[in-house]
Amino acid sequence: MRIALIAPPFIKIPPRFYGGTELFIANLAEGLKKFGHDVVVYANGESNVGVEVRWLYPEHEWPIKGESCENLKEINHTAWAVHDASESCDIIHINNVFGLPHSRFIDTRFIYTIHHPHERALSEFYSYYPDVYYVTISDFQRQQETMPHVQTIHHGIDLSRYRLCENKKHYLSFLGRIAPVKGTHLAIAVAKKSGIPLKIAGEVQPLFRDYFESEVKPHIDGKFVEYVGEADLATKNELLGNSLALLFPIQWDEPFGLVMIEAMACGTPVLALPGGSVKEVVSDGVSGYVCCSVEELARRAREIETSIRPATVRFYAKEYFSLERMVAEYEHLFSAIRDLGSPRRVRELLEVVGKERSVA
Predict the structure, then answer these.
(1) Could you give the domains of the chain?
(2) Whole-prediction pTM
């Protein structure tokens, strides 16, 4: 099959630092290529994923400010990409909402992976496109949607890019956007209550600069609480691999949380608060613990070195969140949808069947 993966145009693929959706697209593209498919990724011109890349805008633009000119750029990029893909691809896989309206005019099967949390207005918007096949990234997310064609496919990562580290150092880690909903301030509280040092990595976006200055920066001393900046893959391997546990004190219903399985791939258990997909990703007592408070997180942090073995965590990640498992599930979906024929042809067949039944 020839498969188009359409990304927003703002972050290069694969991302160097921040970019969960972009990391997913890079992993899926390279995995599908290994399975023998012809893949084209629509992104920006700085992208260097190992498949064909096409672009309208040559350079990345991040962080975005949320202004109308950026929305126009994404709309323009997506419309161009869908039109271009429709001329040669069997499947068009979109990863933003701007691609959906084009499914009315293109006689090619569409798949849309939903990367954001549930919003009533968006779900209502989806209802106007029943021919599209929707993929949610957690069962928690899927249970909030009502489209006729929707299924869950959990994310997976290339575990060969993450090193198992069995000899941990005496610190905890936090990796993610420095934002209130990510709970960076709670990670600091856990470190202080447990008496275990904390290393923080992640992007400080302009929108949350005040939060960083007031709730995080005053606690950074370079010794007990350290901020190491944004993390590329090498930094992730070092930061996550060496830490006793990843703290994931989430304060919102995140649809997935790729950093959890990145930590597990390094043999590092996850200590999380419940929310969104957390209980689907973290197996209590196997790959970490889902806790109900900062106090419980701190207690588990003090016990983690003796309660969970790094090799067990790595095995769990390989069993449930491998790239091969994710790609196989997407490949099965792509093949099934392709074999149905075009949406127009399916509607025509249903109309014929309906007329035959009415005559009978």
Answers:
(1) 2-156+323-354 (3.40.50.2000), 159-320 (3.40.50.2000)
(2) 0.91
